[in-house]
Amino acid sequence: MADEFRTAQPKEYYRKFLEKDVRPDNRELGEFRPTVLNIGSISTAEGSALIKLGNTTVICGVKGELAEPKTETPKEGYIVPNVELSALCSPQFRPGPPSEQAQVLSQFVADVIKNLGNWCGCSALKNTALPTVTVDEETKKVETDFKQQNMLHLSCCPISSTCAVFDDTVLLVDPTSEEQTLATGIVTVVTDGKNICCLDKPGGSPLTDSQMRTCIERAFQRHREACKLMEDTLCSIDR
């Protein structure tokens, strides 16, 4: 009966829980989902990570390739993010070319990748080892030494956190996919632990000053938790 009610009237189903300051998955309104992190899970990638947030699993792989640098940054490499939402992930995704949602997510990752504002991405990059590359200044010949690997150094590690607004008033921290679908507003905050690197709110219900402060405070808390989990996981593996 509960499943039928949830399917037929999802908002009413949620309201019954939110009236008691609890969510259907037994979390409090401001509680993050349980998180499990595995680093180095893809042996064929230069770096990788798998993160599980509640019932949601994200896997990230890093592949390194030699390429011509961009004209505006001749001494630097660059990152090309690609978000894939395959039909195997969820019934809401369809097979075929990248969906609009996948393209929007890829662009968002690209926008914040300069600050590495992605938990799974940060973990994968922290696990990334690249071969030593040298360039002969006279012949311009590129030589790659795969025996001598160098760990990628990250100058900072920003983490993103998302909050959702339900019924224009109730603030939910770390919303599930279902909660995001029912939400009247979404806001994502990216922080490096000291500063806010990015704040994304694609329309929807406006947030009060108090709600926005809560989102930011929870984002800083999430950053501390994420960094500790990443460091503990990295220390537990041999690389």
What does this structure look like?
This protein has six helices and nine strands, in the order ααβββααββββαββα. It has helices at residues 2-8, 10-18, 100-112, 119-126, 177-182, 209-235; strands at 35-39, 47-53, 56-62, 129-135, 142-151, 159-166, 170-173, 185-191, 196-200. The strands form three sheets. The chain has a four-stranded antiparallel β-sheet with strand order 7-6-8-9. α1 (2-8) crosses α2. The longest helix is centred in the C-terminal third of the chain and has 27 residues, at 209-235. The protein is elongated and about 70 Å long. The relative contact order is 0.14. Keywords: Cytoplasm, Exosome, Nucleus, RNA-binding, rRNA processing. Residues 31-117, 158-221 form the Exoribonuclease phosphorolytic domain.
